[in-house]
Write a structure and sequence with these properties.
By secondary structure, this protein is α+β, with helices and mostly antiparallel strands. It has 2 domains: 2-119, no CATH class; 134-273, 3-Layer(bba) Sandwich (FAD/NAD(P)-binding domain). The chain contains 6 helices and 13 strands. It has a 3-stranded antiparallel β-sheet with strand order 1-2-7, with no helix packed on it. β3 and β4 form a beta hairpin. It is globular, with a radius of gyration of 23 Å.
């Protein structure tokens, strides 16, 4: 990403969105809206003085809201470009950041800017929307997290510096369950997400490597690990003591005192509930 940002023939419009596309292949007219950072990205040096003096803390979206950041801050340490942005909705307009900036790059009156581009080819990389799985208590029970949230928890630069901790009390859980195929493989969404199997294998192995005494169960409909050496990676996780259960999780409830989760799963291979 850093090399792309430095390339003379590549222009990156970060913090922006495509508003309109007209024309045809070889002759597209595109409108891109650059959303206001309230910081001029061509002037900001990334010194961090504005963050140091800002008195307002907000949740950190990069850490899936598990940690706090200043109202004006950089998205994360390795962000490209290394430019700060200000959360205007939370700003109290004390102007401490403006007064502290030596290069005068902060402007609280910035408005969205439309950039008109003429392009020949458009490559669409749409990404995906996260299915949170409210049927398994996400948003209701504190200790139900998504794989993306777990990624930030296990990241060395994450809110817990890579150590597994429960959101409810900050303690390390001794029993962890991964539920795969959530929101898919049914009549409404018959497809496979193609990511949850390997994410579960990777993250369960990360937990097991730091805390070998953790009991880890992965429930699944089918384990699909395509790719060079991925099946062997899955085999090594089983050898590490991670239990894989072929079956879907049914009932799930929470102990209101301990915030522990109690659930029931049908193990289809042996035909008995767990």
């Amino acid at each position: 990403m850093l090399e792309a940002n430095r390339h003379p023939n590549i222009t990156i419009y970060s913090y922006s969105e495509v508003k309109q596309i007209l024309g045809y292949i070889g002759n597209f007219e595109v409108q891109v809206q650059k959303n206001p950072r309230y910081v001029y990205d061509d002037i900001c040096t990334g010194c961090g003085q504005c963050t140091d003096v800002c008195p307002i803390y907000i949740t950190n979206y990069f850490d899936e809201d598990f940690s706090a950041r200043k109202c004006i801050d950089i998205a994360f340490a390795q962000a490209v470009p290394a430019v700060y942005d200000l959360a205007k909705d939370s700003c109290v307009e004390c102007y401490a950041c403006v007064d502290s900036c030596d290069v005068h790059c902060i402007d609280l009156s910035q408005e969205p800017e439309i950039v008109d581009l003429e392009v020949g080819t458009i490559i669409i990389a749409t990404g995906w929307d996260l299915y949170t799985g409210e049927e398994y208590g996400y948003g209701k029970f504190e200790n139900v997290v998504t794989q993306i949230e777990l990624e930030r928890i296990l990241a060395p630069n994450g809110p817990t510096l890579g150590h597994l901790k429960r959101p409810s009390d900050g303690k390390r859980p001794k029993n962890v369950l991964f539920i795969n195929c959530v929101g898919s493989r049914n009549e409404e969404h018959p497809w496979c997400s193609n990511v949850c199997c390997l994410l579960s294998v990777k993250n369960s192995k990360l937990i097991k490597s730091e805390y070998p005494d953790t009991n880890i169960i992965v429930s699944y409909i089918d384990m699909r690990c395509p790719g060079k050496m991925y099946e062997e990676y899955y085999k090594r996780s089983r050898e590490a003591g991670i239990m894989y259960i072929n079956g879907k999780v049914g009932k799930l409830k929470e102990d209101p005192k301990t915030k522990n989760l109690i659930l029931r799963c049908e193990e289809t291979l042996i035909g008995e509930p767990i």
